[in-house]
Amino acid sequence: MNMTMKKIFTGLAAGALLVSFAATAHANLVTNGNFATGTSAGWTLIGPAVAVVPYATWGLPGTYAGSAYGAVYGFSNQPAGSTLRQAIATTAGTSYTLSFDYGSASVYTNFVQSLLTTVTDTTTSANILSQTVSTAGSGTTLNTTYTLFPSYTFTATGSSTTLSFTDVSAATISVDAFLTNVSVIASPLSNGGNGVPEPETLSLLGIGIMGIGANMRRRNRNTKSMGKVSEI
């Protein structure tokens, strides 16, 4: 194998490695974000009024976000204040996108449920993000009461970042709130974050490298052909 071919294969191998790294970087960093395990695995539950339960127990549709379970706040008419918390591994200076689904199950449309979402540095407890979202019950059909809220972007300040979801609802009687589909993903460079390039971009890079290699092979063949003509 000549030096040109070695360079081509080296470039292709590097491109494949980058694509693999990009796919990993874009994976959800939250453990058990949709509670599909049927447990609170990966989460810390603080307070008596939060638990992971099957939707069927509430008379709701069997599954949502690929799971038959969700985290419920305020069950048995208990007061607000309970929290779901999880620490995730992050890289200081890297931007991440946080998203989740949150909704209420109640026949009373005026029973508003509210969730305080905070993102803090696990080591220093410094606040990175704080947002409160609210949703009102519109019946007992989960698909109509869940809301996909706008995603939030934050920049990590350390190697571990803590997510906290606290029930701050004013109404707690005859209404329950559900949280699921929690996701934190490294923001791609194309969206202004400090993550790695999108896999699609890297795929195009790989195709470009292959094209360069093919062009170099053609040039080598042409050079050899010209050499033979000169000898004649």
Mind explaining what this structure looks like?
By secondary structure, the chain is α+β, with helices and mostly antiparallel strands. It has a single domain (29-191), classed as Jelly Rolls, CATH 2.60.120.260. The protein is 26% helix and 33% strand. The chain has three helices and eleven strands; from the N terminus they run αβββββββαββββα. Helix 1 runs antiparallel to helix 3 (199-231). The longest helix is centred in the C-terminal third of the chain and has 33 residues, at 199-231. The chain is globular. The protein starts with a helix and ends with a helix.
The overall strand count is 11
| Number of discrete helical segments | 3
Beta-strand content bin = 25-35%
Cα Rg: 26 Å
Mean pLDDT: 77
Give the CA-based shape: globular
Low-confidence segments, given as residue ranges, are 12-24, 190-202
What would you say the CATH architecture is? Sandwich
CATH topology: Jelly Rolls
CATH class: Mainly Beta
Helix content: 25-40%
Distance between the ends: 27 Å
Q: Structural class, judged by helices and strands?
A: alpha+beta
Largest sheet properties: 6 strands, antiparallel
Q: What string gives the helices and strands in order?
A: HEEEEEEEHEEEEH
- Supply the CATH superfamily name: Galactose-binding domain-like
What's the quaternary structure here? single chain
How many structural units, i.e. domains? 1
